[in-house]
Amino acid sequence: MKAYHFDAFGDDLASLRLGEDAAPTPGPGQVVVRIRANALNYRDLVVARNEHPGLRPGLIPVSDGAGEVVEVGAGVYRVKVGDRVVPSFHQTWLSGPAEPEFMRGMLGGVVDGLLAEYVLLDQQGVVRLPDYLSYQEGATLACAGVTAWTSLTCGPPLRAGQTVLVQGSGGVSIFALQLARMFGCKVIATTSSADKAERLKALGADSVVNYVETPAWGAAVRDLTGGRGVDRIVEVGGPGTLEQSLACAGMGAQVALVGYVGGLAGEISPRLLMRPGLAVHGVAVGSRADLSALLSAMEVAQMRPVIDRVFPFSEALQAYRRLEGRSHFGKVVIAGD
Ligand SMILES: NC(=O)c1ccc[n+]([C@@H]2O[C@H](COP(=O)([O-])OP(=O)(O)OC[C@H]3O[C@@H](n4cnc5c(N)ncnc54)[C@H](OP(=O)(O)O)[C@@H]3O)[C@@H](O)[C@H]2O)c1
Fold first, then answer.
1. To bridge 60 with a disulfide, which of 34, 112, 290, 336 should be the other Cys (CB 3.0-4.6 Å)?
2. Which residues in the chain are classed under CATH 3.90.180.10?
3. What residues are paired with 90 via a beta bridge?
4. Fold entry, domain 155-282
């Protein structure tokens, strides 16, 4: 079978190699999944740059995919041959709060990922894909979709009528926009271009602020709430944006600290964190139960992921380049040939 491997990291993707591997055979409790589609996340660039913990040369990259169960080992009861499934990002975090040991089963980082024709997984690490979603759509969910879900569901419940701030037009942010609309919330989005602003509005954003034209956009976002501030923030920017996010946070605001597309440097004044009731939640994707909850909610609403572009399996490198270039809108997918 064909599988991609990173022979080394931190060399601008030069070591991403398409190889021929032996097809896996399932042991007790294991399943073999024929991967039909993958999707990339910013985190896959972090892996390629050698900035992810626990990497080892030879790793099969990419956490996200969807496919069909083609073989099961003894004692498998959760799925059967022919089932369409999505592997969960943290293979051993099934439910409940995060524990340090759950971070050792991260696909495409700590353990081999899914950028391969066939993968071997524990039966506990997969969930069924609802019929209404294609493999390409299903492939987008395990990291970005679940992260958006946990960002909106951590802390006190999000209430209809509240205002959610999302940043940019990447995978996590667009899922957060769609889910926040599903929860009956107002959405304010930031982005870098007029074209993307229109597309975010078409997806349901009530207002969009261009963070390039308005670098101190926190005040503009606060104005859009009549001075009250936003109720929930899905923070993916890091330096610079976190400060602006806190500047537009309302009293009792819940901040889900998800990402750092702008890097990891920066200083935050304690004063910005003193807003009464404000809470900052660290996010590490989510559990298999979170993935199942996301899929149930999406199925009721018939919500569809936004796919930017689909690249053939043989052109995975171009898919990485597309993500790196930041002109994408939604998810960059790799599927078949
Ligand atoms: N903690 C977790 O569990 C978790 C899980 C998933 C992802 N993440 C992190 O979340 C972040 C987003 O991941 P992703 O996969 O959704 O990324 P992505 O698809 O690559 O999207 C990145 C987008 O961020 C926007 N952006 C870039 N610089 C920005 C800035 N200074 N301010 C606001 N937006 C900016 C751009 O959109 P525009 O062009 O529209 O501005 C860009 O397309 C990454 O840092 C990733 O590592 C964390």
1. 112
2. 2-145+286-334
3. 106
4. Rossmann fold (3.40.50)
195 lines ligand 1 (CB under 6 A): no
Distance of CA 257 to the CA centre of its chain: 13
pLDDT digits 0-9 by tens, 281-308 = 999 999 999 999 999 999 999 999 999 9
- Does 144 sit in the ligand 1 pocket, CB within 6 Å? yes
Confidence of residue 264 (pLDDT cuts 50, 70, 90): confident
- Note the maximum CA span of the chain: 61
Question: Closest Cα to atom 35, ligand 1: which residue?
Answer: 168
- pLDDT of 262 higher than 90: no
Mutate to test the pocket of ligand 1, among 38, 40, 41 (most ligand atoms within 8 A of CB): 41
pLDDT at 337 over 80: no
CA of 235 to the centre of ligand 1 (A): 9
Per-residue pLDDT at 323: 97
Select the more confidently predicted residue: 268 or 78. 78
Question: Is the minimum distance from the CB of 196 to ligand 1 under 6 angstroms?
Answer: yes
Q: Fold for domain 2-145+286-334? A: Quinone Oxidoreductase; Chain A, domain 1 (3.90.180)
Alpha-carbon span 45 to 178, nearest angstrom:
24
State the average pLDDT over residues 259-274: 88
d(CA 258, ligand 1 centre) in Å: 9
Is the beta carbon of 172 within 6 A of some atom in ligand 1?
yes
pTM of the predicted model, to two decimals?
0.98
- Closest atom, ligand 1, to C-alpha of 46: 47
Burial of 15 (0-12, 13-18, 19+ CB in 10 A): middle
Atom in ligand 1 nearest the alpha carbon of residue 174: 16
In contact, 48 and 18? CB cutoff 8 Å: no
